[in-house]
Amino acid sequence: MSSLYSRNKDLSSRTRKSLSDSPPSSPSPSTKAFRHDRTSRSDGGGVEGSSERLSRTSSYTRRENRLASLNKTNDDSASKDYKKLYEDALAENEKLKTRLEDSKQELAKIRSQLDRVTQKQDRISERSSVFESEKREKQALEKKVSDMEEELKVLTELKSDNQRLKDENGALIRVISKLSK
Question: How far apart are CA 172 and CA 170, in angstroms?
Answer without folding.
Answer: 5
